[in-house]
Structures are given as structure tokens and as C-alpha cells.
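Note to self: keep these together.
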Amino acid sequence: MNATTRRAPGPKRPGSRRQPHAAQDGEPHPGHDHQLVLLRQMLLIRRFEERCVELYSAAKIRGFVHLYIGEEAVAVGVGQSLREEDAVVSTYREHGHALARGVPTEAVMAEMFGKATGCSRGRGGSMHLFDAGRRFYGGNAIVAGGLPLAAGLALADRMRGTDRVTCCFFGDGAYAEGEFHETANLAALWQLPLLLVCENNLYAMGTSLAREHAQTNLAMRAASYGMPAWTVDGMDVLAVEAAARRAAESVRAGGGPHFLEARTYRFRAHSMYDPDRYRNKDEIARWKTRDPLDGLEGTMRTAGTLDDGVMKQLEEDVSTEIDASVRAAEAAPYEPVTDLLRFVTSTPGRAT
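Structure:
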């Protein structure tokens, strides 16, 4: 950092199918038990999303729903690089991020139903999942709206002198918004402990990357702000975890903001309302051959660490967990009308 760079106030912190990802020198080599954890987390997200499709079709879930199917490796891989005290800021496609962060399945499902037992008390629904206790700060319905919030969280941690990391997920569509460039500039200028994770699924709603960006190498553009930036195969959970861990450790050690472009793909339309006429079926079929769940499962079967019996047990465990969350959501109450203004207005000097 040169002498003319301004710092934020406060103390400086202390210091076709691919081949399975091969760990590089210095990278951790995930063992059998860890890989099972990764597989179960991705399976939980996938089956949760599929159940939401059924419930939406039955009119039990209402409003907008943006599915994460196909992108599970990003949430799970990045999540493994973070600690409990770190912060996560997400987008409106955040079910996977919330579950990977450890927000209970029952709390997420109840929120989908709009029930008072939901993680946002039923007030947010699909796009506004929130859990302050787990430092999961949304769920944000505004494209790129989470980026300035993430910069604020990172600035607060830097001023306190902690070694926390704030991780902000956003899509390639958000990259075209001014909030990204303002956030990237300030983060680099003030050396904020911020991990920027761009989930590049090639489409901003119905607009393809090439029609949106003159330069489609997003990591290269991010590097122009003076931060380390690189791309990773977002369909390979082991590759994502290795890249995210390297980035998070560098941020935590005082290396300033880092940018990670995860090249991924959503198998479903932008939202449940979207007829998905802007993509051809061949393209979707090609990407499905790189399904992140199939990729890790294949790696483990090849290594002899996964068989039909273990896979069946995983499916049953996940199904049981999701079934229980649906039953709990159906039985849960809605917030009473008398609480309509709760958390909206407050009496000075009195806690709400």
C-alpha cells in the first residue's frame, strides 16, 4: 500500500465431465468424513429446494422463489472456509447460503411458509432469510444491495481490531451495478477484511453475461481495484473450498479484500415465475452433466469411500429432516395482527 492510500479509522488488524479436483501443494486434502459432510450439505440444499417446488405448486409457499439448484457447491465450499464469528451477506437466491451457514432447516422452511417460527418471524419470506445469531445478515431482494452492507460489517470489524471475515455473495448481474464498484474501491482503499464471492451463473435474470459485460473475465476486472482475484470451477465443491479457504485465510491475516469468481450454473429458471425462454435445452443439459452432487459422489465412489448403502442413508436422513421441517411449518402459527407494527416503530428508551 503506498503512502497516499487513505485508511479507514481504527486500528489495523493483526496479521463435459471434469476430472475431480486435485489438491495442490499446501492445500488440505479432505478426508472421507469431511467429504461426507460436504455431500450431505449439498444434498440437503438440493432436496430442500426440490421440496419447495412442490410446496410452491401446492400454494403453500407464496411470493417469489429463486431456486439454488445447481449452485450448491459454491455455498457449501465457501461456507467451509468461514468461522462462526465471521459474517455472511447474501442475495435473494439465498436458501443454500442459509442452510450451509447452519440456519436450522425448520427455521428456513417456516420462513418460506411465512410463519412466526421462521428465521425472520415470517416477515421476510424466501428473499429475506436472516439470522443475526449466526451472523447471517440476509437475504437481500435488491440486486447488489448486500455489497455496501458487507463493506460496513467489514469496516466495523476492522475498527474493532478483530480477525473476522465478512463474506458477501452476489451474482454476475450485481457486478454491473454501481454498488459493486463502489464497494470494491472502498474495500481496497481501506484494506477491509472482505471476501467477495461472485456466483457467475452466466445470466442476470434473462440477460446473458456476454450481453451484459463488455469484458466477461470478471476476476480480471476485479483485480484492477488492486485486490487478489481469481476464478474457480463453481461446480466442484472441493475446488471451491480450497480456493475460498486460501482467500479467507489471506483476508484474515490482514491481506485486505479478495475476490473469488465461482463459475457455476442454475439448473432452474431465474424464479418460479420465469418461463426460461432465453436458454436452450442443450445448454442446460450440458451443464447438468457437471452436477456438483454427481461430481463429488463420483469422486468418492472412485476412491471407494462411498457405496449405495451410505448414499441411501444420506438420502433418508435428509428426507427425514426436511419432512420434519414441513410438518413444523404447517403447524406453526402466523404472527398475530396485533404485532403488525412490532419492529417498525419503537418507544424511545424502551426495548421492542
